[in-house]
Design brief:
Elements: E1 6-10, H1 17-28, E2 32-33, H2 41-48, H3 55-71, E3 77-80, H4 86-95, E4 100-105, H5 108-117, H6 128-134, E5 144-148, H7 153-166
Parallel strand pairs: 1-3, 1-4, 2-3, 4-5
Helix pairs in contact: 1-7, 3-4
Length: about 170
């Protein structure tokens, strides 16, 4: 039997991490953790003010997500995290070596449009350019898949499930 993945749903703001993450977790039958909930208040205050986070702001947040993911090793789980840079993903893997990434990708115009219609989120559309500038897509040696965010949430989730199923089983 295949060991369930611990999945980090990643991507720039507005790709649907908070929408797709819980759907993917439900489809896989594992718990979901909202990555934003791991942010300290100071980080949320900065982002709410339109101030991009620095790496030193992100380290404790990434470590907290990594510890949650490590605790789900062998059990499966889904957590959201922008994980935009390779160094951020490396930090997550240092704490939770078996994580796999689902990189939600899409056209900037589509993502900006979706961001402009959401309510009550602390990340303003003004930070989207900095998110795209920071983004380092998954590299060939990183366990994960890229999934296009075109279409509805169920369609995106199904693409993610199929892509994850196609990954080699590394649990043996």
């Amino acid at each position: 039997m295949r060991t369930p993945h611990v999945v980090v749903v990643m991507g720039v703001a507005g790709t649907g991490k908070t929408t797709i993450g819980p759907l993917l977790a439900a489809r896989l039958g594992v718990p979901y953790a909202e990555g934003d909930d791991f942010h300290p208040k100071a980080n949320i205050d900065k982002m709410s003010a339109g101030i991009p986070l620095q790496d030193t702001d992100r380290w404790p947040w990434l470590d907290a997500i990594g510890h949650w993911a490590h605790g789900r090793a062998g059990l499966g789980g889904v957590v959201s995290s922008s994980a935009l840079k390779r160094s951020y993903r490396d930090r997550l893997r240092a704490v939770a070596p078996g994580v796999v990434f689902v990189h939600l990708t899409g056209d900037r115009k589509l993502i900006e449009d979706r961001m402009s219609h959401r309510r009550g989120h602390f990340m303003p559309t003004a930070l989207l350019d900095s998110q795209f500038a920071t983004l380092q897509p998954l590299e060939a040696d990183e366990a994960g898949v890229a999934v296009d965010v075109g279409g509805g949430p169920q369609e995106i989730t199904e693409r993610a499930v199929k892509a994850l199923d196609a990954l080699p089983d590394t649990s043996a």
